[in-house]
Amino acid sequence: MIRSLPTLTASVVCAVTLLTGGPAAAQKTVPQAPPSATSLTLDEAVARATGDSEEVQLARSQVSLADAQVTAARSQALPQISGTLGYTRTFESSFGGDGGFSFPDSLRFSPDSTAALPDRVRYLETNGPNAAFEALGGLFSDLPFGQEHVYQGTITASQLLYAGGRVGSALDIARRYRSAARLQLAEESAEIEFQVRQAYYQALLARELASGAAEALAQADDFLAEERLRLEAGTASDLDVLRAEVSRDNLRPQLVQADNAADLALLNLKRLVDLPLTAPVELATPLAPPTAGEAARGRIDAGELSQTRAAVAAAREQVEIRNSAVGVARSSFLPEVRASMSYGRQLLPSGIFEFDGSWRTDWTAGVTVSVPIFNGGQRFADLQVAQAELDQARIQLAQLEEVVQLEYEQALAERERALEAIAARETTVEAAQRVHDLTVLQYEQGQATQLEVSQARLELLDARTNLAQAIADFHVADAELDRALVAAGETR
Asked: PANTHER family under this entry (predicted)?
């Protein structure tokens, strides 16, 4: 299709402008500087995670829920007071439209005062008994039955006097549940702290390994450059240069792998501390060997650990909760005594907005005793269930005490192993560094081969890697030891 002239002209102008560097080309987009990296220390990472993590927030919500349950359980022992205010409009009633009793004509008493005296005497003799019914109807004519308009207000109060200990047991359950929730909050905080410390040191280790791989590759590049210079000087062969290139190229995949591992470890740390995954982060805490104070740590016995661990204390609270639940189940066999009182006022006006009548008072009080007799064996079943759950809670407590002691022993043993490994590998790194330096010197003097130089470089890289791994293992084991020693009532 042939373009129209204005369109073609505009296209040519745009192309010429771009090619000649006109105004459009002059207005180049200035590249923005990358955002500065966030410096993050280990303590800052722990503080962010334990303060904002969803797991900790969930544990805190359980504490708030437990507080509400304590209030609800306590309310059962307090008076229950309620008030009602209502209006009733009666359109039709079986008691009659005027609110009194309606009698048939044969029972009515209405003598005629204008009749002759003999007729009046005869009427009185015949209908005299009906006068009593007429008076009775007038007596009950103002009762509330069938009244057209009724206003009524009532205040009712009840107080539980005795329930076989059910209320006290329920209150004890709620309080212990609140205590267990707070202990669980300490456990969740400690678990989050351990995960953050572990991820932080894993990120430091991955960064250290990536740095070591980059340094080894840089050394291989320098060595290759020296071989090429020696080739130009006639002191090396093409085979020596080719070997140096192969040795250098073999290090590139290791560097890529180390960089990927470092990126993944940092992403995991960002996830735990709730940082954007794309935000640059600089780890400010170094991967350093432990100081003498960090390395020295006392040992505690199993009894002390069992008494201080928050998880064990929470399990003990669960045992007491199940014990109180047995008390609640037993209370269902006992009677319940409750006192109640009701005070009401009633008005029967002639119209909906005509408050011309007098208020009537209705004030009653009573005591109710409820005695359980038979419910098909449900109470016995509830008691058996409560007793079985109590036995399970006791067994779980014993198992947890063993698990906690095992976690502590494993963390302590791993910490001691890492300390010994650090001491041994620091010596190994020093020896590997000396071997590498001497091998390079001998190679420069023609007394060592290129293969020996590559082997010395690889051994030095392995020694540094092993040392960094041992240091990271120590710090992770130390964090796990802190996790095993989290004290009851400690929130982080």
From this structure: OUTER MEMBRANE PROTEIN TOLC
